[in-house]
Design a protein that fits this description.
The complex is a heterodimer. Chain A is of the alpha+beta class. In chain A, about 35% of the residues lie in helices and about 20% in strands. Chain A contains 17 helices and 18 strands. The radius of gyration of chain A is 23 Å and the shape is globular. Chain B is globular and about 70 Å long. In chain B, the strands form four sheets. In chain B, strands 12, 13, 14, 15, 16, 17, 18 and 19 form an eight-stranded antiparallel beta sheet that branches. Chain B has a five-stranded antiparallel beta sheet with strand order 5-6-10-8-9. Chain B has a four-stranded mixed beta sheet with strand order 1-2-4-3. Chain B starts with 12 loop residues before the first helix and ends in a 14-residue tail after the last helix. The chains are: A alpha+beta, B alpha+beta. At the A-B interface, strand 9, helix 7, strand 11, helix 8 and helix 10 of A face strand 9, helix 8, strand 11, helix 9 and helix 11 of B.
Chain lengths: ~475, ~475
């Protein structure tokens, strides 16, 4: 319930249709793509201009009301999960593409614009926006900035942070700040990188300048089958070690290909233990030369079958299964849990093998479908929440995978963000020194912690608590921390 | 407008004496108070600023750096990290005295992970040393700011250089860092995973922070496969506009050229004289380099040549042999010295404007007209593919009026770039000389930078007086 004076103040900022408070109206906002965690907010606000955002934040700051910004709600880590005592600030009405400048190859867009809509609008100029998370038909660019989203092509073209120039945002104080600039580099501290991936904890984005790239003249994808998953992992490392930077380098294991084949009928080889998709783009000559190199490496790495797309329809059909992997798995299992650990590529074979062993140990099927070129795993653990013990074992299995990722020098989240989901994992991955800096940064932007509280960065107290519960190999984590 | 300044305080004399005594005891010959060594550590390659450090220490390990910083933290003594002193904006001047940490003896390449295309080096490794050690691996580290700077220094200033147009700047190429924070804590940030959305991006926050948020002691870097084919070409133009327009068209078409450098007629004349470049005229000129497969390089070069032709450019002069290429790039790297040699006895400093590519022609031409109106000699040279270009502004140090005129010109260059949506510094950084321009460029965001500086360094001991006006 909103305090009546706060409600009145918000009602003076927004028209009635943009201020939702009844439970039936706020219900659709109770969770994002991670449906394990739900909470109903006191109100949902739908501003349509920056002045309203400024006024809302200023009012919420005065009243000490938590604010959770929300884009399309496709986050997989609970980044947009509401706070019961707070408001959800939806940017859904910020859906204007303000301008496209083919001269500088940039577009100025509002945060609620869908990722794919940018490329669709830029297509008239032969340009596109490179990062392409699988949810790109639905996810919003503001959310992409908040999560530093990647996608299947970020191996060659980078993550969100590499593909934006400027973010305009509003601080909890109501001050409007421009991060970055229109030139290649901006002076001073790299605040643009700091707000990118900050999960709505530092500022609310109101406008973004994205970089656009010329559409490659031509693209081909090779589909390679392997009899052994370790061999496929080694093939990924071999491609990179050969100095090839494919436009996309994705892997699916047998559990994944079987699930998607029933769904998209793309003709995947179902007897293969693993399938790699390797894309090359550029001019026709460049693609031909690179494809020949890719084929040679795949053959040497022991591929049992290699198919190269011969036309655009075929290329899209090879990709269709990868892009639809999550919904396809959703069809064959009552529940699934997606992990997002990222590791140095050299460790792929080892980690995949270990996941296979654990999968047998826990008796839980794990479908692996992931951005192999970046070393970004997405093991999908299939479970049935209605079967006693399944959920607990799933979570334990997932935690072990993430611990292994940290152990081999990786990270607990490559692109989905920490949200509410991986707060404990943050305690394992980061030292108190780093967590301290994180908290210092948060305090510099939002001293009272009103923007998206309880997400992204754990408190030191939480880490101490987690360390107490989670004694690993007999060692206490962060013994130097005070215990509570 | 009054110039914003960043403040610090001189340490209490007895506190300083105490730290000098302890460091001398602990580090012996690696702690130096000799005046000529201190003088040498008080400036980079730009114009000198007042301020010698009280002592220069040469640590060998992360732990030594941490111990030194911890002592300075307790005694509230300024700490200035120093690589090889090639910065241009007064970054290493000890404005308030204190301890200079010279990292040049931390010069080991710690690991090379060929399969993952990354490596970890100590901060004092120079880029040329790294590339020498990579010989035989088929890999290289591309970022090339001209000077043989240390990788720690390049990370601190977010350096870029001639091939940023293809490979990005240090922002894109630093994967992780080991940093000593203001209180002397060793922190590792980032890592070998190619992407992470866990926590705030501390790596990029430290990259470009010019030693004001922490002392970088190790750098994890991306490496690249040496391209199958490399070739370089030179193309001369009838006027400045057609040269710059050629660049803009190439960028808009997305030709993946590895380097694209502009030299105006004055700079070309200087280079012809200084580097004995034969067969060229003192006309606006573009230097190109193409990387890729044989077929790819040929295709890029053909597209480039046809754009240049349309703009009235000459036929490409090719340099495919490595020695011809390195002569060409050496001439480019020596542009600053070549410019100084135009007017013996003068001093010079470089401006560093960077604008969105579509504004480049306007910015370059207006800047050139501005130079001509002042009567100063200030050749233009730049990494124009990024929209970044430099003036080397020459002035007679004995002539105060001329120096004032030169500085006023430089301020107008920054202001012009900012007005066009660009930045006052594409790659050299803020240091002490561009604090005013930072405020002009960022407005409200500077307040956040100040707050961050205070959060990371509450006692203001890390390179005080630089990067952010406090």
């Amino acid at each position: 319930m909103l305090d009546p004076t706060v409600h009145a103040a918000l009602a003076s900022i927004l028209p009635p249709a943009a201020l939702l408070t009844s439970p039936e109206d706020t219900r659709p906002y109770e969770c994002d793509g991670l449906m394990l965690f739900r909470e109903q907010p006191a109100a949902v606000l739908l501003p349509d201009n920056e002045a309203q955002v400024v006024a809302i934040l200023r009012r919420c700051a005065e009243a000490g009301v938590p604010v959770v910004a929300r884009g399309a709600g496709t986050s997989l880590s609970g980044g947009a999960m509401p706070v019961a005592s707070g408001v959800v600030l939806s940017l859904a009405k910020f859906k204007r593409i303000v301008s496209i400048d083919p001269g500088t190859r940039t577009a100025v867009v509002q945060p609620g614009v869908r990722n794919l809509a940018i490329s669709e609008a830029a297509a008239a100029h032969g340009l596109y926006y490179a990062p392409d998370p699988s949810s790109q038909i639905a996810c919003s660019i503001g959310g992409n900035v908040a999560e530093n989203a990647g996608g299947v092509h970020c191996l060659k073209y980078g993550l969100t942070v590499h593909n934006i120039r400027r973010v305009r945002g509003v601080l909890i104080s109501g001050d409007v700040v421009e991060f970055g600039g229109d030139a290649l580099d901006a002076s001073g501290y790299d605040l643009l990188a700091l707000v990118t991936g900050s999960e709505g904890l530092l500022a609310v984005t109101t406008e973004i300048t994205v970089k656009l790239l010329p559409k490659p003249q031509y693209a081909q994808v090779a589909l390679a089958a392997f009899a052994d998953i370790e061999q496929a992992g080694a093939a990924v490392a071999a491609i990179i070690a050969a100095g090839i930077v494919p436009a996309g380098l994705e892997m699916m294991d047998q559990a994944a290909t079987r699930a998607v084949e029933q769904f998209v009928h793309a003709g995947y080889p179902l007897d293969a233990a693993a399938v790699l998709l390797v894309e090359s783009d550029g001019t026709v000559e460049e693609v031909a030369a690179e494809m020949a190199d890719i084929r040679a490496v795949l053959e040497r790495a022991g591929a049992t079958e290699i198919r190269v797309s011969q036309n655009e329809a075929q290329r899209l059909s090879y990709w269709s299964g990868r892009k639809a992997a999550f919904p396809a798995v959703g069809r064959i299992s009552p529940d699934y849990y997606c992990i997002d650990g990222t590791i140095p590529r050299g460790a792929l074979a080892r980690v995949l093998k270990q996941i296979e062993v654990w999968s047998a140990e826990y008796g839980l099927t794990c479908a692996n479908v992931f951005h192999a070129g970046d070393g970004n795993l997405h093991p999908l653990i299939l479970f049935d929440a209605n079967r006693p013990g399944d959920k607990e074992r799933t979570i334990e299995f997932g935690d072990r995978i993430l611990e292994l990722c940290i152990e081999v020098g990786g990270t607990i989240t490559g692109e989905h963000g920490v949200g509410v989901e991986k707060l404990n994992g943050m305690c394992s991955q980061f030292s108190p020194g780093e967590l301290d800096r994180f908290l210092g940064i948060k305090a510099a932007f939002d001293p009272r912690g009103l923007l998206n509280p309880g997400k992204g960065v754990p408190t030191l107290a939480r880490c101490a608590e987690f360390g107490r519960m989670h004694v690993h190999h007999g060692e206490l984590r962060h013994p130097e921390l005070p215990r509570f | 407008m009054s110039m914003p300044v960043s403040t610090g305080t001189r340490p209490a004399p007895d506190a300083m004496a105490g730290v000098v005594a302890t460091l001398t005891r602990d580090y012996g010959a690696r702690a130096v108070v000799n005046e000529s060594v201190r003088e040498q550590h008080s400036h980079g390659e730009g114009l000198a600023d007042a301020g010698l450090p009280d002592i220069v220490v040469f640590p060998h390990t992360n732990e030594e750096v941490a111990a030194i910083v911890r002592q300075c933290h307790i005694a509230r003594i300024p700490v200035i990290a120093f690589g090889v002193g090639t910065s241009l904006e007064g970054h290493v001047a000890a404005l308030y005295g204190g301890v200079c940490i010279d990292l040049s003896q931390m010069s080991r390449v710690l690991e090379i992970n060929g399969d993952d295309l990354d490596c970890r080096v100590q901060a004092g490794v120079t880029r040329e040393q790294l590339n020498a050690e990579l010989k035989g691996t088929g890999l290289f580290f591309p970022i090339d700011p001209g000077a043989n700077a240390t990788l720690g220094g390049m990370a601190s200033t977010r350096a870029s250089g001639t091939n940023a147009v293809r490979y990005g700047t240090m922002r894109e190429n630093v994967l992780g860092l080991t940093v000593v924070t203001a209180d002397g804590t060793l922190v590792r940030v980032g890592g070998r995973a190619r992407k992470s959305s866990a926590g705030y991006d501390l790596t990029r926050l430290f990259v470009g922070s010019e030693g004001t948020l922490g002392v970088i002691t190790e750098v994890q870097l991306r490496l690249y496969g040496i391209p199958e084919a490399i070739s370089a070409a030179v193309c001369q133009f009838p006027d400045l506009k057609s040269a710059v327009d050629t660049v803009i068209l190439a960028m808009q078409m997305g030709i993946p050229v590895a380097r694209i450098e502009l030299l105006d007629d004055v700079q070309m004349e200087a280079c012809i004289r200084y580097s004995k470049l034969e067969g060229f005229e003192a006309r606006p000129t573009l230097f190109f380099e193409f990387h890729g497969s044989d077929a790819g390089v040929q295709e890029q070069a053909e597209s480039m040549q046809s754009i240049a032709n349309d703009q009235g450019g000459s036929a490409f002069e090719w340099a495919t042999k490595p020695e011809d290429r390195s002569r060409l790039w050496k001439a480019r790297h020596n542009a600053y010295y070549a410019a100084l040699a135009l007017l013996p006895g003068t001093q010079g400093f470089a401006t560093d404007a960077c604008v969105p590519i579509s504004r480049l022609t306007q910015c370059v031409l207006e800047t050139r007209a501005d130079v001509d109106a002042t009567g100063l000699t200030a050749p233009i040279v730049g990494h124009v593919g990024d929209g970044n270009f430099h003036l080397v502004v020459l002035f007679d140090p004995a002539d105060a009026a001329q120096r004032a005129k030169a500085e006023a010109l430089a301020r107008r260059v920054s202001a012009r770039a900012i007005a066009m949506g660009g930045t006052c510094t594409g790659e050299h950084g803020i240091g002490v000389h561009k604090l005013g321009a930072l405020v002009e460029e960022h407005g409200e965001a500077v307040e956040l930078m100040k707050t961050l500086k205070r959060a990371f360094d509450p006692r203001n001991i890390l390179n005080p007086g630089k990067t952010v006006p406090l």
